[in-house]
Amino acid sequence: MSESTEAPRPADGDAAGSCCGVSSCCSDTEQSLDPAITVLEAKTDAGCGCVNDQDGAHDLPVVVIGAGPVGLAAAAHLAERGLEFLVLEAGDSVGAAISDWGHVRLFSPWRYDTDAAARRLLEPTGWTLPDPETLPTGAELVRDYLTPLAEVPELAVRIRTGTRVVAVARQGVDVTRTVGRDEQPLLVRTIDPDGTVTDLTARAVIDASGTWGRSNPLGHSGLPAPGEDQAGPYLTGPLPDVLSRDRDRFAGKHTLVVGMGHSAANTLLSLAELAKTAPGTRITWAVRSASVARLYGGGDADGLPARGALGTRLKAAVEGGEIELVRSFTITGFASPNAGPAAGPVKVIGVTPDGERVIEADALVAATGFRPDLDMLREVRVELDPATQAPVRLAPMIDPNFHSCGTVPPHGERDLAHPETGFYLVGMKSYGRAPTFLMATGYEQVRSVVAALAGDRAAADAVELDLPETGVCSTNLITEDQLPGAAAGDGCGTSCDTEPAETPAAVTAGEAGGGSCCGGSAPEPVTIGIGAPAGLGFATGSVHGYSGETERDDN
């Protein structure tokens, strides 16, 4: 994203504001005096003479894709900057993806789960931040934060739900065309539930659509196993509500859980709890690795007690026979009855060091992580790292082979920019296939991007990040033997490591707040700034990420 060299148009004297219904007519700081209508609508309704002189591209909105925490944070910053914007959400309501795992409890308290600009919009409405030290569930995050935020006048009329974005392009030119490309607005194609297709033009696009709903395959080598598509009816989603909403899918049946992150651990422990009251409930846990030492963690020695309790509980459940653990299991195929689950279990075929093994299951939980939807971006010029599928300048900072979620340094608009001027990937989608995303990082991303779109280069480059001192990438299930204040669920992805690491000194004083789906026991804020050495953030675990840990074979 290059800086604009166009000088602001002069205002039409003192009467301009009253004539146009905006705070500063025909300038880059103009904002509607009525937050329920756009600047262009206010000026048109007031008969402002400068409307016809406006550059059409200047009046186009910034389109935000996704009305989750990061998308709505982008909207809040755009509203504060007085920029035109439109938020498009595929779900029926804001926070739709989070609602799918609403039973899950975040691992970070409220004080890290909200965006500063969003709070500034909410507070005049009488909204107050819930107990800063309380750990909300996904449902509470939607109910007590995202829904009220979407209802503030500055945002309410600019959010369209039930609107799925199917493509982003440059109007009038395909991805191969270079001459005059940046002179054309971006084009966003949407489809409504009734099938209506609409093309919208935009001055910029902020894609905060996340990765939820696009799970990694169960097969090996990053590819679906033969027959995996036909096994779809047996899949229950990566974070099923085992003890409530989805209980009937599991009670009295055999479930196979695949994966070695905290999402898998949450589901396994919930299934073990269900088995106590639902006779016939059986649980098998399959992992590709020969060791599960990383997920078991350090137990009582873990620097994060809640995470240690999770590993301790899971290890006890396996050793106690509540969960059957199958190690070194690589899935090579599926054989499903033609009539689906009603006709019997699916056969999951795999290889182990001892040869082929077949596991029959009534339900499958694929806790295998997520990947971004890049098909919708085929006609824009994005520059992605071939390994992580993250923006190339961001990729080295988040590579899970070398980073846990807390060792990711602050980054902003310059790191997120693509060859396609005005297009940005933010939030979880900006991390591609890396599982190390923090909500707080997403909030800082959009603050920087919006500052750049507003022409405030200094603010865009002053990238800072406020994280919990012992933040981790995932969460765990509340159980009777867990320490008070520990949390349930998994809002982030795979685990960070367990060794305590030296804390880098704070570089700059950051903006208070900032959301995070990760947290820790008794977290303390640590601010890291853009002046930190390359590759150095704040370590929440060992110096390397989850792939850098040497697994032991003694567990």
UniProtKB/TrEMBL annotation:
Domain of life from the UniProt record: Bacteria
One Gene Ontology MF term: flavin adenine dinucleotide binding
Keyword annotations: Oxidoreductase
Pfam families: Pyr_redox_3
SUPFAM superfamilies per UniProt: FAD/NAD(P)-binding domain
InterPro entries tied to this protein: Auxin_biosynth/cation_transpt (IPR050982), FAD/NAD-bd_sf (IPR036188)
Entry protein name: FAD-dependent oxidoreductase
Source species: Actinomadura luteofluorescens
